[in-house]
Amino acid sequence: PNPKPQTPNPNPLFFLIIFNYFMVIMSFKKFGIPEWLIDVLHSVGINNPTKVQSLGLPVTMSKSSIVVNAMTGTGKTLIYLLPILKQLSVDPFGICSLILVPTRELATQISRQFEFFGAKISIRVSLLIGGESDIKNTLSLDQIPHVIIATPGRLSYLFKHSEILKKYIKNLQFLVFDEFDRFYEPTLYFFIKDIIECIPSNRQNIFVTATLDTSNIDEKNIKSKFLLGEQKIQIIDLNKQLSTVSALSHLYVFVPHLQRDHALIKILKDELNDQSKAFEFDRSVIIFFNKCWLF
C-alpha cells in the first residue's frame, strides 16, 4: 500500500514573523499612523514606539502644540516627522512644514530622514543652510518644497529675497524648533523673531530638545519668546541626561595638527583592546568632526 502523505509541520518562524509584523502595525496604528508609513518604520527595525514617542505622538497627531525634552537617541524626530508625512500624504500642496535647527549638520541629518521616510509619497525637501550658494537655495525653493529644513540666518535672508518663499509659506501648518533651547542665544534669536513675523500664526508648534535643564522649562517664557499668544502647549519632560553627565570621563589629548588622525587611531585601539573594560560598554564609538566632506 502507498504510504499516506504526511502534512508538513508549519514553520514556527513564519508565524513569529507574521505576529511581530501585526504587533508593529497595531503599536503605531493606534496613534493614527498610516500603514504605508508603518511599513517604512518596520523596514528599518523600528517596531515599537519609545516612551517619549508614546507620550508625544498622541499630541502631535492631534495637531496640538508641544514641548519635548528627552535624551538623545529616544526618537524625538519621529514625533514631528510622522504627523508631517501623514498630512502630506493627504494634502501635498505648498510649504507644509518648516523645521528650524541651530546647525548645518543637524539640518542635513534631518533632511535625509525626511527624504528616506517620505520617499513613497515623493515629498520635496528643501535644505536651506549657510555655506550654500544663493542660486542653489533659489532653485530649491522654485520647486515649491513640501518641507523646508533651515538654519535661522539663511532663512531670514531668503525671506527678504525670495518671492516664492513668501507666497507659499502661507500654507504652513507645522513649525518645528529642533534643539530649541539654542535659539535663546541672542545671535540666533535675532533671526527667529524675523522669521516668526513672516509666517502664519495659525499653525502647530513643536519644540524638541535634549539639552534643556528641567528647571528652565517655563511655558509662559516659551510662549512669550516664540510669540505663541494664548495658544495651549503641552510639555513632556523625560530628560534625565543632565543628572548623569557627571558619570562620564572627559579626556583632552594635545597633539600636533598633522598627528591627530594617528593619535585618534591609537587611542581607539588602546580602548578597544583594554580587556578590563570589556563589559563596561558595547564597543561602539561616536566621532564628531568639525567638517564632513561627501564623496
Would you mind describing this structure in some detail?
- The structure is a single chain.
- Strand 3, helix 6 and strand 4 (147-150) form a beta-alpha-beta unit.
- A seven-stranded parallel sheet has the order 3-4-2-5-6-1-7.
- The chain has helices at residues 12-29, 35-43, 51-61, 76-90, 104-117, 134-142, 152-159, 163-168, 186-196, 219-225, 260-272; strands at residues 65-69, 97-100, 125-128, 147-150, 174-178, 204-209, 233-237.
- It is of the alpha/beta class and 295 residues long.
- The chain is globular, with a radius of gyration of 23 Å.
- The chain is built from eleven helices and seven strands.
Find the count of extended strands (DSSP E, 2+ residues): 7
- Tell the overall outline: globular
Please give the alpha-carbon distance between the first and last residues. Answer: 70 Å
What percentage of residues falls in helices of 4 or more residues?
A: 40-55%
Tell me the structural class. Answer: alpha/beta
Order of helices and strands: HHHEHEHEHEHHEHEHEH
Number of helices: 11
Q: Strand order across the biggest sheet?
A: 3-4-2-5-6-1-7
> Kindly state the mean pLDDT as a whole number?
83
Strand content: 5-15%
Strand count, sense and barrel status of the largest sheet are: 7 strands, parallel
Q: Rg from C-alpha positions?
A: 23 Å
